[in-house]
Design a protein that fits this description.
Blueprint lengths: L6 H24 L6 H14 L16 E5 L2 E3 L13 E10 L2 E10 L5 H19 L7 H14 L3 E2 L5 E3 L6 E5 L16 E4 L2 E3 L5 E3 L6 E3 L5 E3 L2 E6 L2 E4 L26
Antiparallel strand pairs: 1-3, 2-11, 3-4, 5-9, 6-7, 6-8, 8-13, 9-12, 10-11, 13-14
Bound molecules: 2-amino-4-trifluoromethylsulfanyl-butyric acid and cobalt (II) ion (CO).
The site of 2-amino-4-trifluoromethylsulfanyl-butyric acid (MF3) has 11 residues, from strand 3.
Length: about 270
């Protein structure tokens, strides 16, 4: 069942989305060789709680962290460990939070230092695919229009879309109807109407589409060990077109994101 959101509810989800976008920007600014995945997770947890929000992944189906960190051939749901980032890593960050009862869910792939040409192109094509998918998230279109647009862009670049995991509606629950696959047929699927909010999240492999689950029960990897990238935004369907909720508006200047002392508080020495 699709749950439509009122304007007031979308306003709350916009607040949630902005805080989540700031969180991801902060993590992106921190990510560099030598930093561990657990340090990123710790910062995300602190950053989200400091703003009065709940890091919603914590406790979700037994998950124990605020973010997912998926490196190189890991697709999504990688568990943060003490593994340190290395030059050339392709790091996918996925975070979610709950703000006044409403979820925001978003993710980004980040290159650590200088990437290989293939990794760079994979990251660029995946980011573009999300944008092209979002552009189809319009009243009167169908979910299949989003799916087909994402798939077409990815496959035209010689990459493949993951089938086993899909985007989703989002609201008071992280995962609501409808499912939003990254593959499909234009003109098919649920009709897009004002008040729907969708988490659109292309997962793109440099090689084949098949993925497998590691023994930790969470981490999803490519079967052929090819690189994978992922981007996600929570997007509201409005009469005026798609509104990306998980962004920091340009008018909002945020100091903490790029501050090296951000985690130390006032007077923190460094
Ligand atoms: N953000 C992911 C999604 O879109 C969910 C992360 S799983 C969790 O489905 F356990 F970490 F929450
Ligand atoms: Co999601």
């Amino acid at each position: 069942m699709i749950i439509y959101k009122s304007q007031a509810e979308i306003d709350l989800m916009r607040e949630a989305g902005m805080i989540l976008a700031e969180t991801l920007a902060r993590l992106q600014a921190m990510a560099r060789p030598g930093l561990s995945l657990l340090e990123l997770d710790k910062e995300a947890d602190r950053f989200i709680r400091d703003r009065g929000c709940i890091p919603g992944f914590v406790g979700y189906q037994g998950y124990r962290h605020a973010i997912c960190t998926s490196v190189n051939d890991q697709v999504v749901h990688g568990i943060p460990t003490n593994r340190k980032l290395r030059e050339g890593d392709l790091l996918s960050l996925d975070a979610g939070l709950i703000h006044r009862g409403f979820w925001a869910d978003a993710g980004v792939t980040v290159g650590i230092g200088k990437l290989s040409a293939q990794a760079q192109r994979l990251m660029d094509v995946t980011r573009e695919a999300l944008g092209i998918g979002i552009d189809q998230a319009r009243v009167g279109n169908r979910v299949g229009d989003i799916s087909a647009a994402v798939q077409q862009h990815v496959e035209a670049a010689g990459f493949s879309v993951v089938r086993q995991f899909v985007g989703h509606g989002i609201g008071r629950d992280m995962h609501e109807d409808p499912q939003v696959p990254n593959f499909g047929i234009a003109g098919r699927g649920p009709l897009l109407k004002p008040g729907m909010v969708l988490a659109i999240e292309p997962m793109v492999n440099a090689g084949g589409p098949d993925v497998a689950l590691l023994g930790d029960g969470w981490t999803v990897v490519t079967v052929d060990h090819s690189l994978s990238a992922y981007f996600e935004h929570s997007v509201a369907i409005t009469p005026d077109g798609p509104e990306i909720l998980t962004v920091v508006p340009k008018s909002v200047l945020r100091q903490e994101i790029h501050s090296p002392l951000a985690s130390e508080g006032p007077g923190g020495g460094g």
